[in-house]
Amino acid sequence: MRYFFWYVFSFFLLASCNPREKDASAPRVVIELSDSLDVSSLDGRLLLMFSSDDREEPRFQISNSTETQIIFGMNVEGLKPGDQVAFDPEAEGYPFDRLSDLPPGIYNVQALLHVYETFNLATGHTVQLPMDNGEGQQWNTSPGNVYNTPVKVEVSDGGLVSLTLNQVIPEIVPPQDTQWIKHIKIRSEKLSEFWGRDMYLGAHVLLPKGFQEHPEARYPLMIFHGHFPRDFGGFRTTPPDPELEPEYSERFGVEGYNIVQQQEAYDFYKRWTAEDFPRFLIIEIQHPTPYYDDSYAVNSASQGPYGDAITYELIPHIEKQFRGLGEGWSRFLYGGSTGGWESLAVQVMYPDEYNGCFAACPDPIDFRAYCLTNIYEDENAYYYSGGHDSLEVPAHRDYLGNISTTVKRDNQLELVLGDRSRSGQQWDIWEATYSPQGKDGYPERIWDKKTGIIDKAVAAYWKENYDLRHIMERDWEKLGPKLKGKIHIYCGDMDNYYLNNAVYLMEDFLESTTNPYYDGEVDYGDRAEHCWNGDQENPNHISRLRYNSMYVPKIMDRIYKTAPEGADLSSWRYK
Q1: What domains are there in the chain, each with its CATH number?
Q2: Among residues 36, 119, 132, 172, which is most buried (max CB within 10 A)?
Q3: What is the pTM of this model?
Q4: Quick one: pLDDT at residue 551?
């Protein structure tokens, strides 16, 4: 018994010592904020990166692919010029769990402080979040973030690495107006009230041919939803640059895809200015939030009333300035991926304000297929569990089913980039949009970020407020007559993110249980990956560049069938 006691005692003593031994063997990293910087103090997420690849800076080599380099993160508050901070050896890491797990070796080492701003919300909460600075919520390029030029260091157990943050990412020069494209920015009263500071919405507006020559014309409005656009994309008034060096697209397996993109942009310009092309306005909206590169275009507890701000402030402002018709029958929504979800969600939540949506490869529109997770029935988002074993849930595949990452892995990276849903990445923005606001002012977690265990109370909130299939089925008696003929959904049956699974469930409802019948369209691309948008004739790498013209025939048909008596159907149809 005495020997047994000492055996147990020794076991626990050694176990308790292991973390300290591990910490002692970790590299010691000291980061200083240069006293040359013109700042008082900074809060934010301090990111530390190690790369064995010399091709570019470590900050541009972090991804959820197997080619990622290494990153660790921790929060800092009140960091002043001249201050030093020792990086926590137990800080969250990716793909290694902790800094103490980093293998010795020669690395390019870089640190970056993703700066947070303090917001005093109308809800009474005070939160710290990264304000977008014109880049579309990209932590590695956000103006005002501070970093160091990478240094090559031999990292060893217990060795010292010293870094000085002395570089500031410069401001972004906004795009300039042209004959065809105009840029607007307005202060939103609704958003400014919610966030406790001035908040803005922007848009890039593509004008039709003859806009100046036909002041009597008033135009329908096409809203192209998607991620943060620096400028209006896919429009080029000149042929492809003859000096452009061809680049290979690994995603599509196409040589010279950059030239293809320029040619498609020029071809769209030629269609846009052709004699027989309908004249209307197209806009791409800038609505980044402190959580992501766009708001998902709906009202939410943690991001505020973006749906109302876009629909009732931004859209009327654009229509007034650029002579839009300004009525629901003359407005149409389309987009892919995030933009696909937004197009459908906005149509459902504002059924009278828009006359049709074309939702391509939409983010999950039925949370029974939240990618590969049923948030209502599954207990864990990271693992399929059996009686004696478990298997990680995939997050990305190619058209042959080859898996490149998992849900757990994606969320590990997000936790490094920012806790409290502040990573600016995909799983966190769904949370920031769909979740109730927690007691601390941040979104409540749909699942534990480390274990994957799903919070059923949060899932129930998601269901009643943002599960589009559930909302439509629940409210179809009221929504059905308003949405009849307006719903068009397209998805590849080998979508990289398994988004087709939710589309199948939505189709089941639309085709079999709606009364009145939805009278729309759901279509699939055979073996097509993400961004398939309904084009059965062209490959995905081409059709994804044709959003701005491919739905026009269906939109025109819809306008003529549904325009109210006396509506203006002629002033905008000039040659």
Answers
A1: 28-168 (no CATH), 181-366+467-562 (3.40.50.1820), 368-464 (no CATH)
A2: 132
A3: 0.93
A4: 95
